[in-house]
Amino acid sequence: MGAVPTFGAVALDCPDPVALAEFYRELLDWKAAEVAEDGHWVTLRNPEGGARFSFQRVPDYRPPAWPSAENPQQAHVDLDVTDMEAAHERALAIGAKLLDDSPETFRVYADPVGHPFCLCAC
């Protein structure tokens, strides 16, 4: 069993891991982040257990490009919500940018440094 990995974390590159962790901490309503001594790695722990959300400083960070015919989407985060309108307003108020609201069951946003994420109706 020790040879089978468990899902530990999702890590996002960014220019300022403390600031981006704070955005997601507020969006998810999780507890304060754990910041490495050098400030280059920050971790949010899911209060219900499970995978962590981590952020690492990358020099010369470039945000992901929104998908197009020339540039496919590489990855995004899905976040489940029970009240889409309230979650939408909250996300915008803390710095998310709406990218696509055409689907009825989810909306696509970018975090403050450009990573795409979806709010998904559940």
TrEMBL record:
Gene3D superfamilies: 2,3-Dihydroxybiphenyl 1,2-Dioxygenase, domain 1. It holds the Pfam family Glyoxalase_6. Residues 6-122 form the VOC domain. Signal peptide: none annotated. This is VOC domain-containing protein.
